Amino acid sequence: MEQVFFTSWASLIRTLIIGVLAYASLIAMLRVSGKRTLSKMNAFDLIVTVALGSTLATVLLSKSVALIDGLLAFGLLIGLQYGITWLSVRSTAVSRLVKAEPTLLVYQGRFLHEVMRAERITEGEILASLRERGIASLTEAAAVVLENDGTLNALQQTSDNANSALRNVPRP
């Protein structure tokens, strides 16, 4: 009969040792790879984070995966993520490939309903974003932008259009 609650002390000790070593190694690799690895996530970052978590779980619980194999997998994932982000800073083509463009949802006090439907954002979510920024009325909003990481940023109307924070956001 299969052991459900307890297999052996050796199994527990292995999980404890591998867990501590794998966790410590992952933290060290993430620290070495820089702040960008742990930044707010876009879709690409989310995939790497999920893959790292899955790898950690596999290393912890699968007796058929040696610690060194898991560490190599951590290094590979972090190295690939570092390489792609390094390239995306230096190449607009790579940047466009891995990062979404910010999307304008409100412009000059008006909802952009077609864009909102395409991005699956409700008026309520936009109004909540305005309230978070202390903007009391839609007409006071220069824009609400859906950022690359999924956050909503609301901007108040200003008279300084030359230095607008919207200069890299496509307009309707």
Automatic annotation (TrEMBL):
Coiled coil: none
Residues in YetF-like N-terminal transmembrane domain copies: 20-86
YetF C-terminal domain sequence ranges: 91-161
Pfam families in the record: DUF421 (PF04239), YetF_N (PF20730)
Keywords recorded for this protein, A-Z: Cell membrane, Membrane, Transmembrane, Transmembrane helix
A GO-annotated cellular component: plasma membrane
Subcellular location: Cell membrane
Transmembrane intervals: 12-30, 42-61, 67-89
The UniProt record lists the keyword Nucleus: no
Record's bilayer topology term: Multi-pass membrane protein
Family: Belongs to the UPF0702 family.
Protein name as catalogued: DUF421 domain-containing protein
Organism classification: Bacteria, Pseudomonadati, Bacteroidota, Cytophagia, Cytophagales
